[in-house]
Amino acid sequence: MDADALNRENTHLKARLAEVEAALAEVQEANRRLEGILRAAQRDRFGKSSEKLSPDQFNLPLEDAELAQGVLEAAQEKAEAALARARGDEPRKPARNRGHLPAHLPRIERVIEPASTLCPCGCGEMTRIGEDVSERLDVIPAQFQVLVTRRPRYACRRCSQAVVQAHAPEHVVPGGLPTERLIAWIIVSKFGDHLPFYRQAGIFERQGLSLDRGTLGNWVGRACFHLVPVIDNMKAHLRGADRIFVDETRAPVLDPGRKATKSGYFWAVVSDDRGHGGAGPPIVLFHYAPGRGREHPLKFLAGYRGRFLQCDACQAYNALTEITRDEGPWQLVYCWTHVRRRFVKRLEREGSPIAEEMLRQIALLYRIEKTVRGHAPADRLAARREHAAPIIAALRPWLETQLSRIPQKSLLAEDIRYTLAHWTGLTRFLDNGTLELDTNPVENQIRPIALTRKNALFAGNEIGAENWAMLASLVATCKLSGVNPVDYLADTLQAILDGHPRSHIEDLMPWHRPQPSSRAA
What we know:
This protein is α/β, with parallel strands linked by helices. The protein is 50% helix and 8% strand. The strands form two sheets. The protein has a five-stranded mixed β-sheet with strand order 5-4-3-6-7. Strands 1-2 form a two-stranded antiparallel ribbon.
């Protein structure tokens, strides 16, 4: 080999080495970032705000870690390919577990032929002996279409008197642009996916459609009018539930006179019997109220026939225990999650061994509950009396003893007094297998409201807040029932417009809708 050839080979090897070194450096950097995300996620998991995070928010660090893992894998594959090329080998194809894409999705096929199918030995045309097939998931982003409806007219040529034509179908917006499915999509985008109307208007704009937020709001308001019978029937179901969950969250409303916002509240009422295998439908119903005083639950719970109200220790609920009803006063069932949050703070901020032991005892209660989740009330009650009752019996005197030993003005003493003051409501679950240890079923429904509020900032007025509450109720109930809310709202609106009788409104409830199978979600 002459000197020029050696120089070229040396230059080539140096280039390969530089490529490999660069690829390895990318792997190291990607790995460093992934480790940093995982360390941060671990801190956040046990950090001060962990009790305030919703499940969706807590998933954010995990999503960051998965994204970083993807970067690392891509860097590793690039490095392996560079090493293979440096050795003169063919880079191996990484193994993938794609799973099975749903059969209902349309398939767009493409065939990639070799540059030539002539045998390199000169034998002529080669014969096809098989093929490799791969499927990848593609997307057509926010594609809108125009639905054209034609209604032919027919006339008699002999008499020129008779003319027939099919009646124009009823629509939410008579003579307007949107189909009922488009309106359903707009509703779910705002009240299910937390996209305010102005953001949706931007999505339309990218498709060349000029629709302002006022137009979108008008369409949705018209849908509200038609959906009132559905909401009324949901209320009737809730009124008959023996046990309900209630919680509230702030709902800022624009106050034009002061050019500012005023604080209203969304009150959520939930009935969900799946924890004890009940047959009652899962329902979420939001109410808007201009405050959080005792008069508001008294008003929106008037006519309810339930006995148990699972709630936090908000003073507004105490009034419900004093009212006279045929069913007797409401019995309040308090939340162990709220108790746990208090002692989590004491452990994090003070390292209190008393708080640590309290959390250990609460964890035992939840471990027992996990074993009977979804079981019949009698089975749950038997397990609680056998395993949870002894824990509860020993816990109260232990708390009283600890309270006598610590400074009475300390925050830990305040937390213990809070627990003891609500002891009757906290221990009612030992006497009824339908009750839960906490108010998580309603808190899980409150969190999406907070996300929509964060993106929308505030409601335009109190009427708007009431409509917000109504539509959020429908979307949330669909999700509890495992029903696609867009399909449900579109079909329900069309059924009402087509004259579905109010006497059969029960047929249109989300929980009666067939579960989605292979149809697109």
